[in-house]
Amino acid sequence: MKKIIFYIGIILIGGSIWYLFVKPHDYQVNFKAKTFPGAINQMIKTWSNTNENSELLENEKEDLLELRQRFQFGDSTHIYTWHIIPETDSTSNVKVYAKDFEHSFKNKLTIPFSDTDFEKRTRKNLTEFNKLLNEHISQFKVKIIGEEEIKSTYCACTTQSTTQFGKARGMMKDFPLLDGFLVKNGLKLNGRPFLQITNWDKVKDSITFNFCYPVVRPETLPQHPELIYRNFPSTKAIKAEYYGNYITSDRAWYALLDYAQDNNLKVEALPVEVFHNNPNMGGDALKWKTEVFLPLIKQ
What we know:
By secondary structure, the protein is α+β, with helices and mostly antiparallel strands. The protein has six helices and 13 strands. The chain folds into two domains: 22-138, 2-Layer Sandwich (TATA-Binding Protein); 143-295, Multidrug-efflux Transporter 1 Regulator Bmrr, Chain A, CATH 3.20.80.10. The strands form two sheets. Strands 6-11-13-12-8-9-7-10 form an eight-stranded antiparallel sheet. The radius of gyration is 25 Å and the shape is elongated.
């Protein structure tokens, strides 16, 4: 009996030391999300960028499933470590580990016995985020189609470097040039406008892209300093259909990356988007269709 009491005491002491001095977080919140990890990753970043008390901490790895976020509340610095765990192709489990660096020891002592201000603030923050995430999920749809071929075309393009969030704004900037200049100079359009990503930095969420109009190649090409003409070759790819505002069509990029990983497909992470609707005409954004492709790497 004495030995049992002794070992129980050792376990209790060891557990207390781990809980008070080793455990890396003060409080944990779990919730489920009815979407894939990439959409959650982007919403965390959007939420942080629009919150004056928050900033994301640098992540040198291309890890979409873990982010660290810092909140400043007066003299308190709260760190949230986000872990996104995919469950199915349309559901994820999210775990958030919260720590108050200045008051961590006090939190660990009081949390088991009372509902602290730290817990209340953390729950309030994450409830707000979950509401925004659910609103966002309701504003788009992604349907995976599978393997297809992007058809070859000749096209006139502009080139820009921006953020993923700034992609649609960049397209709107060049729309008058592509639409007006080409029509004015008698070029015949030969398909739907499309966007080709030529560089994607997943850590910084920065991209470089060509915004292109397919055209029938004339004998003489009208010249403009911001236009380039090029042949776009046919390419085998995996395809998704995205319905929603073009600002967030990159959500389909992440869905395709997940699909490629689940099906052991090697892809080049340089998406191509083909647009079926003109946002300037208005209407229900959930009816705006974008075909999204990720080129397959020949094996």
